[in-house]
Design a protein that fits this description.
Distance between the termini: 42 Å
Number of domains: 1
Number of helices: 2
CATH class: Mainly Beta
């Protein structure tokens, strides 16, 4: 822990150094959804505000349920579920939460059916000089973990964050957080045991955010983080990581909304067999709206993630996607989607020269859709997406499509 404290102190100095020219009003940055305290939520009962949402998608055909290179299995599928965002004020204390229930149904592949549950909660106490806050989340999911994995293995994740927001100036604030998270996979079956052996871990770390409120709609942020990943069984994967990501956040009321961070990560493996990584990372999630008829959503992600393959402990994900939605009158809209992801695998040092280990896999998705928004705010539509993955490893290649209806409310 002494090393963690030293690294955190260094990150604080770097953060303050990068953000030193900023001055201004305190604040925790822009909020999304129905506002920071649920002011625009649909339902209000005194100090309680609720925002119900519903998403049902893939009401149709998945042509390759298991993402196999040969003999793909086609099936009828439905997925989605309800979500409720909530806010409650009690004196100086503000509570916010999100409850999510999801389901996945396959007509023939019964072992792929699942029900998921997620719960997030946050409480903050707003005083004149400080805003201490505590956040926790729980997720029980059967969905695919990331772009690498094709198996739907049950897992449980728990996150806990404790922090304090300190005003520094009229427009500036410093938010310091300590965090702890755990990831556990169900090992009741062969595939689950493999995931649990390679990926079960505990993460401890800290975040430091320096916020500068440039305008009511825009906040400049310098986000720094320290992480220590410790694995239960595959201890050779243990690592320490430091990242600094300057960025900008736009409120949902702006013409351009969302967040954009681009920075640097230093990933240091604790075992000599696992190579280190130092380089550019990014986390961009932006949305542009013009005249309420043209909507463009743009995402970019580049970062390190752990692989389930014991010979390639981690990979670097580099990818992005764009969705364009154009209103065509009468409540109708047409959409187009494109996504690309590259997975750059890092093999053990003693195996770096072995063919097909230190490799790159590429995934591409193209899609389109047609929908209509009803007077109630509910949208119904039909979507078609084609996905393809290329790899030097034959078993990792696949292609397939999904076609079917969607129903959404509140998203």
């Amino acid at each position: 822990m002494d090393r963690l404290h030293s690294i955190l102190a260094g990150v604080c100095l770097v953060t303050l150094g990068l953000a030193a020219p900023a001055s201004g009003q305190s604040g925790s940055g822009p909020q999304s959804g129905a506002g920071p305290d649920g002011q625009s939520a649909r339902w209000h009962w005194g100090p309680l505000a609720l925002e119900p949402k519903l998403l049902i998608n893939n009401i149709g055909v998945d042509s390759n349920v298991f993402n196999t290179p040969t003999a793909p299995s086609k099936d009828f599928t439905i997925s989605g579920g309800p979500q409720v965002d909530s806010w409650l004020r009690a004196g100086r204390a503000y509570f916010s939460g999100q409850t999510l229930v999801g389901f996945t149904y396959f007509h023939k592949a019964e072992n792929q059916r699942s029900t998921d549950f997620g719960q997030k909660g946050r409480v903050e106490v707003r005083t004149v000089h400080l805003t201490p806050h505590l956040a926790a989340s729980y997720l029980n999911s059967h969905q695919r973990l990331n772009a690498e994995t094709d198996a739907r293995v049950p897992r449980t994740g728990v996150d806990l964050t404790l922090g304090v927001l300190v005003p520094v100036g009229v427009r500036t604030s410093l938010d310091v957080e300590a965090l702890r998270s755990t990831l556990r996979f169900d090992d009741d079956e062969l595939v689950g045991t493999a995931f649990a052996h390679q990926l079960d871990r505990e993460t401890n770390g800290a975040n430091v955010r320096f916020n500068f409120l440039f305008s009511p709609l825009t906040t400049f942020v310098v986000r720094s983080e320290v992480r220590q990943d410790r694995f239960e069984t595959a201890t050779e994967r243990d690592s320490d990581s430091v990242a600094v990501l300057p960025g900008v956040e736009f409120t949902r009321d702006a013409l351009l909304s969302g967040t954009a961070y681009v920075g640097f990560r230093s990933f240091t493996a604790r075992h000599e067999e696992v190579p280190d990584f130092s380089g550019l990372v990014a986390d961009v999630n932006l949305r542009f709206m013009a005249r309420e008829r043209l909507k463009v959503a743009f995402k970019v992600l580049r970062d390190v993630d752990y692989s389930v393959d014991p010979l390639t402990p981690y990979f670097v994900t580099t990818g992005g996607d764009v969705t364009v939605n154009q209103g065509i009158g009468g409540g109708w809209d047409i959409a187009g989607r494109a996504a690309y992801t590259r997975l750059g695998y890092r093999a053990l040092r003693s195996l770096e020269g072995v063919d097909r280990l230190s490799r790159e896999d590429n995934m591409r998705v193209l899609g389109t859709g047609l929908g209509r928004t009803l007077a109630s705010g509910m949208r119904v539509g039909f979507d078609f997406d084609h996905a393809q993955r290329t790899s030097d490893v034959f078993s990792r290649r696949y292609s397939g499509f999904r076609a079917g209806g969607t129903v959404s409310y509140g998203f």
